[in-house]
Amino acid sequence: MIPVNPAQIPALYKQAMGLQAAGRLDEARAIYQRILTANTGLAEVHFQAARIDAAQGNPGAALEGFERALALKPGEPAIWTEAAQAVRALDDAALTRDFLARAKKARLSPAALLKVQERARPPARAKSATRADIGTADPRQVQQAIEALAAGRLDQARKRIEALLAGNTRAPALHAIRADVLAAQKQHGAALKAVEQAITLAPDYAEAHAARGRILAATGRGAEALAATRKALALLPGMRRAWIDLARMLADGGDAPAAIAAARRALALPSKAPGADAIPLAILGDQQMQERDFVGAEESFRKLVALDPGPEAGLRLAEALARLGRAAEALALHDRLLAQVEGEAPAGAAILSRKASLLQTTGAFAEARAAFEAALALAPEDAEIFRGYALSVKLSEDDPHLQRMAARFDEATLSDAERSALGFALAKVMEDLGRHDRVMGYLHAANAAARRQSPYDIKAELRHARAMTAAFAGLGAGATPPAGTSDLAPIFVTGMPRSGTTLVEQILASHSRTRGIGEIGLAAREAGRLLSAIGAGAEGEAPGFRPVDSLQDEEIAALGHRYGKLLERAGIDLDGRRVIDKSIQTYRVMPLIRLALPASRVVVVRRDPRDTLLSIYRNSFAAGSYGYASDLRDLAETWKLFDETIRIWRQKFPGWFVEISYEALVADPEGETRRLLEACALEFEPGCLSFHQARHEVRTLSVYQVRQPIYASSLKGWRRYRDELAPMLEALDLEEDDDVAG
User: Fold this and answer.
1) I need a surface site. Which of 119, 179, 271, 608 has the fewest CB within 10 A?
2) Domain 149-452 has CATH 3.40.50.620
């Protein structure tokens, strides 16, 4: 693509610095390299790129970069200091002597030279704690207060520490301990004042900054919490607990790559406490699961189970095994965990429920129902288990679980999570029983509860999505893939949720030359990261994205190769068969994916939006996904955005994707299947019409439906609920018989 314009360099440098601060090191490094390709005389860019090399465990490359920076700015202390750390990591005596000799000639200040010498020489054990002042307080009494806090005797701990503070008001350590006690008592306002008093008395008191970060995180002030924790680590890089805090905060904020890096830093630091690695291993494994690195997650969770063989760790490992396609191992592990807890609630109920869900993915519906019933026997009031049970079977009106849960739904004390789970379950049961007059009452209540749990800003999402689409403005149908792209030929199935994507995926996955990998989302995620927001924009303004026509050829080619590597980390054996990747969001970045993977195919599935959106509204989704699903008008606006995007792609990139109508597929299964296979460069096989007999795992809300032949009973189902869907229908503004599926 086009080279970097020198006028772009300040903005690119700012973007790279932001990515680097967020832990997205590969992306930042690529941008620094783009800048250096345009201008090799920028010492600060060489410096930052070298810092990334050092952070990624490549001290040799880091030292080369620092040396280039020093050639441009030979008297800059910061460069000498960072270079010294790379020298130390290389552990070469001759190299160290030469480096220190040159540092002496660099006219650094005495203090700066001393710092360089300390960094370059083999280190003593890293400091992991600050020696904070306790004034004249008796150390034994301070320790007693700390032990009371650790044991959960909070009133006793508070009484002891406040008595010590009475005679030592300027002792920062005592204020910090009091802050920990107050935070444990959920008195966050008072705790924040106490820890800030400690920082006022001792500005470099790292543990106090870390405590402030934890308190801010507990009150929902995430950005301030991150800043406080990073300040603590800048003061005391060896503070293990702060690295764990940082990992947890980054995970909560949705930044899995940075959370993984922070958890690894914590694990690299020593600890004498038994089982000290359990928390960072759990965070690491959970975030690897988020990143679809199931191979890494299995490794992390096996280490976790070795430390903590209880059911919580075991269930984590079982999920990783299941995602790696090893369902039999995962089921056996569930059974071992059940034996371990001797079938007692609540652990036994949780294990049985998870086992039942796994059995569903394998098509073992009778066994799944039995497991759900056993779980409900242990936890008869559990709303989420009942939801799984209700979705797996058709209940009779006299089912005791149904009667109990229907009564519970009317209880005013239900939490939003319980009301949401029960509402979705009861709506499904009412539909099965033909009690259509009661369906929408439950659904409206369930979705209102879901929205209270996860607020959603449709306007912000629309701005974000349209800004991403605008990044493709300079790209046209004549764009050609760069040299050196991957020869992988995946087939991406995309569209709105509940539009028939799973049906199309299963048809394709039943072909002898393909394998289904479910909704893995790696290509769309990595393409979105490559486009990278340049800046969040002012409030109410759209974010900026890198124009696709400004991407370097190497970046686009690397995207496709990275997709292949990530598939391997997800445990997917690239055995020559083409993967069927059903990822809902792929349509948003479709042109970039086609450039990065020119042998790929993209299938966009369309269905009457009224049926699609009703189906979405009927279903419960994982927290944080499809936030628009719980509001009828938001659903309509989201479909219109999808339709708008596909219209743009259809006009700009004809022939880059194929569209399949769910209604047409239902009306003519063989004809549409032949057209689908031809578009994907696959020959027709009769087995593709018998997809429901396939035995591969299915991880979708359609887990039951895809084990059935194609059926037409769901067509035009929206008409039954026309009045209750009025806000959605009004926003869609369609005529009764509009053909909007194809």
Assistant:
1) 271
2) no
